[in-house]
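Limitations
The structure tokens in this dataset are predictions for the assembled complex, not deposited experimental models. Users should treat interface geometry with appropriate caution, especially where small molecules or nucleic acid strands are included. An illustrative entry is reproduced here so readers can see what is and is not provided.
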Amino acid sequence: LSDGPLSGRHVLVTSGPTHEPIDPVRYIANRSSGAQGTALAAALRDLGARVTFVTGPASVPPPPGVQVVRVETAREMLEAVQAALPAEAAIFAAAVADWRVANATGQKMKKDGSGRAPALEFAENPDILATVSQMAEGRPRLVVGFAAETHDVEAHASAKRARKGCDWIVANDVSPATGIMGGTENAVIILDAQGAEHWPRMGKDAVARQLAARIATALTEGE
Ligand code: C5P
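Predicted assembly:
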């Protein structure tokens, strides 16, 4: 539907987990499936947007009809995002690893027979959302972050919005009892400069469609 409200507009979406290598065969990861980011990219495409989809190793396939850029690590994701800009909107749905292994080895680590286990050291990864939110030049007009929290969801998400400098935060409660992480449904709170909007629990596809519509409204308002 190239004649939708987002026709001709470039939108960037990050999605999926990142993998941070320990050695050539082992890595640190997280449980993100990429489902919400994938649904969002498809919904934005359906509104006519030209979508660049920067994805870590997700367990769901990327949607058809978008420009897919596959990455493994947080640092690769940042580079891919910077290479894909400019965009009118950037939506950061990826579950980026906060830390990478600082003492990763180029060869497979071997047991040395001493019975001692290796110690991993960590280094902080770049914050892609904060980096793009705080760009002095060429910042997308709309920058949206996600916040997965297990308690005090609204307060933490509101603090996150201020700290990172993004326009909206889409917050959800990922405590195990909700079944949201890795599940098919989501219940989100949208925080923007106006305040907090609590959306009812619905399928991730429905969240994606409503979010895409809200993004289209924000980008076309006043034109
Ligand atoms: O700080 P936290 O990881 O909870 O923030 C989540 C939001 O920040 C998500 O939108 C995520 O995609 C983004 N993020 C990022 N780069 C990081 C960490 C988080 O873009 N290194």
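Some entries come with short summary sentences. For this one: The helical segments are 35-46, 74-84, 128-133, 153-164, 204-220.
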